[in-house]
Automatic annotation (TrEMBL):
<dbReference type="InterPro" id="IPR023214">
    <property type="entry name" value="HAD_sf"/>
</dbReference>
<dbReference type="InterPro" id="IPR041492">
    <property type="entry name" value="HAD_2"/>
</dbReference>
<comment type="similarity">
    <text>Belongs to the HAD-like hydrolase superfamily. CbbY/CbbZ/Gph/YieH family.</text>
</comment>
<protein>
    <recommendedName>
        <fullName>phosphoglycolate phosphatase</fullName>
        <ecNumber>3.1.3.18</ecNumber>
    </recommendedName>
</protein>
<dbReference type="GO" id="GO:0016787">
    <property type="term" value="F:hydrolase activity"/>
</dbReference>
<dbReference type="InterPro" id="IPR036412">
    <property type="entry name" value="HAD-like_sf"/>
</dbReference>
<dbReference type="InterPro" id="IPR050155">
    <property type="entry name" value="HAD-like_hydrolase_sf"/>
</dbReference>
<dbReference type="Pfam" id="PF13419">
    <property type="entry name" value="HAD_2"/>
</dbReference>
<keyword id="KW-0378">Hydrolase</keyword>
<comment type="pathway">
    <text>Organic acid metabolism; glycolate biosynthesis; glycolate from 2-phosphoglycolate: step 1/1.</text>
</comment>
<dbReference type="InterPro" id="IPR006439">
    <property type="entry name" value="HAD-SF_hydro_IA"/>
</dbReference>
Length: 219
């Protein structure tokens, strides 16, 4: 799965954000807890949030809150904005990896289902805007991940077409499906190796257990 010699190095890498480069699960959990309580719904545990949160709030909230989804979005984002910068945590090796890839000349971008303005605020807060040519969040494109449109937007001014020259790096099935929908190479980045038959819809082309390993693979 990790034999790069058979595929060649990419020209561009697009990264998921949450749980791929940074850890914001505690903030998402806290904001959802406030929202569920406001609407009289039983809150999810942190583990349940990690398992259930995949699509953007724009797409997921109508299924949870029905015709009150816009009201729920306002409550969620108010709670999220109040603490997301203070609780933002960089995952081990992420800064070193991005610096190394940037210096090596790869085109780098972010494709996330986090609200675009909030996502870019986090990127700016970490001083990582210099690494990314394009940072695409939820509602920036016509449709959100796993649709192909956010990837197309992230590559729009890169000179690189979606395809084998583009690796999409993430930690969930949504990221791998997005890569496939856009015609890019799906790369799974997380500590746990893929379980047997875990990714039946899209099998990752490469699996790397941490960010330093990805940098080493591409060097």
């Amino acid at each position: 799965m990790n034999d790069i010699t058979q595929h060649g190095k990419p020209r561009a890498l697009l990264f998921d954000w949450d749980n791929t480069l940074v850890d914001t699960w505690p903030t998402i959990h806290a904001a959802l807890h406030v929202t569920f309580e406001r609407f009289g719904m039983p809150p999810w545990s942190l583990d349940e949030v990690r398992q259930r949160v995949r699509v953007s709030a724009r797409e997921g909230f109508p299924k949870l809150f029905g015709d009150r989804s816009n009201e729920a979005l306002d409550v969620f984002y108010e709670a999220f904005k109040a603490q997301h910068i203070e609780q933002l945590s960089v995952l081990e090796g992420a800064a070193e990896m991005l610096s190394g890839l940037h210096e090596a000349g790869f085109y780098l971008g972010v494709v996330s289902n986090k609200s675009g303005p909030l996502l870019r605020r986090e990127v700016d807060h970490l001083g990582w805007a210099r690494y990314f040519s394009r940072v695409v969040g939820a509602t920036d494109a016509e449709r959100d991940k796993p649709a192909a449109e956010p990837v197309q937007l992230a590559l729009a001014e890169s000179g690189v077409m979606p395809g084998k020259d583009v690796w999409f790096v993430g930690d969930t099935d949504i990221d791998l499906i997005c890569a496939q929908n856009a015609g890019c190479v799906p790369v799974l980045l997380r500590a746990e190796p893929p379980g047997q038959q875990e990714f039946e819809e899209v099998v990752p082309r490469f699996y790397v257990c941490d960010r330093r390993s990805l940098l080493a693979l591409l060097r």
